[in-house]
Amino acid sequence: MAFKSQTNPIKGTTTPVPSMPKHVVIYRVECSPFYWTRCFVNRRYRVRSTETSNKKLAYEFAKNNFMDALRDDEPSLTARPFGWFNIASATAYAFLLSGILGFYDQAILKKENKSFINRVLIKLALTFGSLSYGIYLFHEWALVIVEQSLKTLSTGFQILLSIALTIIVAQILHKLVELPFRTYGRKLADSRTDKVG
Questions:
Q1: Would you say the pTM of this structure is higher than 0.85?
Q2: Quick one: 131 exposed, middle or buried, by C-beta within 10 A (0-12, 13-18, 19+)?
Q3: Whether residue 44 is found in the same domain as residue 91
């Protein structure tokens, strides 16, 4: 309690930081020769020592502190530790496939309808079905890579790039890893069947 009272603003020293919201301020405290700064983000106060007794430098520190607080408060694209992206991805994927296979099930499975739309839907279903394991394996890595490498881009653009990167890598994994191993597995199974027979 004693330390908290010593870090409270000295009366008359609180000064709003120019070109910042009113809640971004610098002030003096009893326990330090430096200016301190305080801002209010997401119903929480963020209090820091500016480590300087120069008012102009304290203003700059306060501005950076506020911007850092805003960045820290932004929801992350990364799926872990938050599961919202995984849930949204799985739900969207389920709706995509159920819409394709459910609404057009007879036309697709029996191939009775040769319309352009149904051919496109069949192609989408087969393509995303073949890429599903690669998408599952890589989507979190894509999110991390894009978020860490391209921090200056908007969240929406980061999501689009993450999706594109995931699909590209999933396609590469499908062609270079899944298909060769699947072929090898079939050959191995056939050889064992021949030996048993």
A1: no
A2: buried
A3: no
